[in-house]
Amino acid sequence: MSFELLSSKFEELYQQPADAISIAPGRVNLIGEHTDYSDGFVLPCALEYATRVLYRPRADDKIVVHSMSYPGEKDEFSVSGDIAKGDSQWGNYIRGMAFVFKRAGFTLKGVDLLIESDVPQGCGLSSSAALEVAIGGVFNTIAELGLSAQRIALLGQECENDFMDIKCGIMDQLISAEGEKSHALLIDCENLKTEAISIPEDLSIVIVNSNYKRKLVGSEYNNRRIDCEQAASKMGIKVLRSATMAMLADAKPQLSENEYKRAHHVITENARVIAATVALKNNDMDALRELMTGSHVSLRDDFEVTVPATDGLVNICQAALGERGAVRMTGGGFGGAIVCLCRADDVDAIKTAVEEQYYAQFNLTADIYVCKAGHGLTVQALATA
Ligand code: GLA
Question: If you ran DSSP here, which 8-state letter would residue 384 be given?
Answer without folding.
Answer: P
